[in-house]
Design a protein that fits this description.
With about 260 residues, the chain is mostly beta strands. The chain has helices at about 5-10, 140, 240-255; strands at about 25-30, 35, 55, 60-65, 75-80, 85-90, 95-100, 105-115, 125-130, 145-150, 155-160, 165-170, 180-185, 190-195, 200, 205-215, 225-235. The chain is built from three helices and 17 strands. It is globular.
């Protein structure tokens, strides 16, 4: 007797990131109605088609890119646990407005890297923030020099840029989807992969930003593109508790079919 199609579908996740206080950004590629093939959000997306708009479900921020189709990610239907995700080929990015001054924050991202160690762009940004300055390497020039999520070209690792180097790095596996959390308490960066043990680095945070970017840095000086997939991005404007962090890890793992602790 064939299996009921309803039983073959991924279990719905009833988790809403906004149920945890201070959620300021929530991008979810499985909610296809939040994606558009124009920079204003009009027009739906098709499998392998361009994505120029990704609506934020937490507030008023949104990610857009009005450039050529080759400069934006593509939509990959049913690519992860039968849910959609975005593919970044090493020349794609999405930029949104998010004006805040941070003294602490927490970022979750569901993603994968498709290139091997030593390949691709040096210090490719997966998720960064900066002021509205496109004339130079804007995210490096911010007070505190803080980039929440970026990779190390020479290794299969991701971490946070702070104090002139990649800090609190964790190892990832090429082509494997993961849930990554970068929590900044205000005095310490705490990075964890799939709910595992945190890598830490002492660092003070007092960061004023007006933009965020997925896929590269916010400048015309140092263009370091991410290569891989992105399925979901969540940002909290505070250092969430250990219990809250564990909850988000487990909810995202269940939703996307990724094993987490």
């Amino acid at each position: 007797m064939p299996m009921n199609n309803r039983l073959m579908r991924p279990r719905a996740s009833g988790f809403n990131p906004r149920s945890i206080a201070n959620c300021v950004l929530w991008l979810d590629a499985s909610t296809t109605g939040t994606l558009g093939n124009t920079s204003t959000g009009t027009g739906g997306v098709t499998n392998n088609g361009p994505v120029k708009f990704w609506r934020d479900q937490a507030g008023s921020a949104n990610a857009t890119n009005s450039g050529a189709d080759s400069a934006v990610p593509t939509f990959n239907a049913a690519s992860l646990n039968n849910r959609g995700s975005l593919g970044f080929d090493g020349g794609d990015s999405l930029i949104g407005d998010l004006s805040r001054t941070y003294t602490s924050q927490t970022v979750f991202i569901v993603a994968r890297m498709t290139v091997a160690a030593g390949a691709g762009n040096n210090f490719a940004r997966l998720y960064t923030q900066a002021g509205d300055n496109f004339a130079s390497s804007a995210d490096f020039q911010l007070t505190g020099h803080y980039i929440p999520v970026m990779r190390n070209l020479a290794q299969l690792t991701i971490g946070s840029w702070a104090s002139g180097g990649l800090r609190a790095s964790v190892s990832i596996t090429q082509n494997a989807w993961f849930v990554f959390c970068s929590r900044h308490t205000g005095s310490q960066i705490e990075n964890s992969l799939n709910g595992g043990a945190s890598q830490t680095y002492s660092h003070s945070l007092n960061l004023s930003v007006s933009k965020y970017c997925i896929g590269r840095d916010l400048s015309s000086f140092q263009i370091d593109f991410w290569q891989g997939g992105v399925a979901e991005v969540i940002t909290y404007a505070r250092s969430i508790s250990d219990a809250e962090r564990t909850r988000v890890f487990r909810e995202l793992g269940r939703k996307w079919g990724i094993a987490v602790s």
